Every structure is written in structure tokens, then in C-alpha cells.
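This week, look over our next protein:
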Amino acid sequence: MSRNCALEPFHSIVDELIIRGQTFKKVEEHIRSKGYSGSASAIRMYATKKRRLIQQLIESDMDKYDLVDRRYLIKLLYKPIYKIKDLSVELLNRIISEYPILSDIYDKLFLEL
């Protein structure tokens, strides 16, 4: 099994911790507590690549991107959009045009209420 395969189930956790600015050591401690048994170097290599990508995005023309924290989309499962700070109807419509499955999910939720 390659190093990347052992780390793959933990990519989203590592990504989130990197975005929060956690150190390699903290990232490693956290995912090991979740069951990761691979090497520390695999974490370091993955995190370094991810940090470079994030830096490239920051340095590029950020006006081209609307970064939406997924917690806002998750909040839509429990609250109407007008109660969610930092999420507008226009932005939600652009997100849904990119990810149409979200429209199906939200439609089903509100039809069942």
C-alpha cells in the first residue's frame, strides 16, 4: 500500500486543518487519533502540496473566485437562507448551477417540511 493510499481517507480532515493554519504536528496528532497509521512524511508531503496550492490561489486573481465555507451550505439543511450570514441568494444560485445535486437536496428538504 502506498503512503498516499493510507492518507486518502483523511484528505478532507487534513485540508480543513491546513486551512485553519494548524502545524504538521497538530495535523498528524489529529488524524492519528482518528485512526491514521501511515507515515508522517506522507502527511508532510500532502500538506506541503496543499499549502502551495492554497498560496497560488491567494496570489492569483481572487476576484475570479467565490470561496464558500461548506458550513454555510450545511446550515441550509437546518435554517432558511435569510438566517445565514455571509450567504446570499445570488451566491447560492451560482453554487447550485455548479453543483445541481444541491438543488435536489434542498428541494426535497423543503418539500417534506
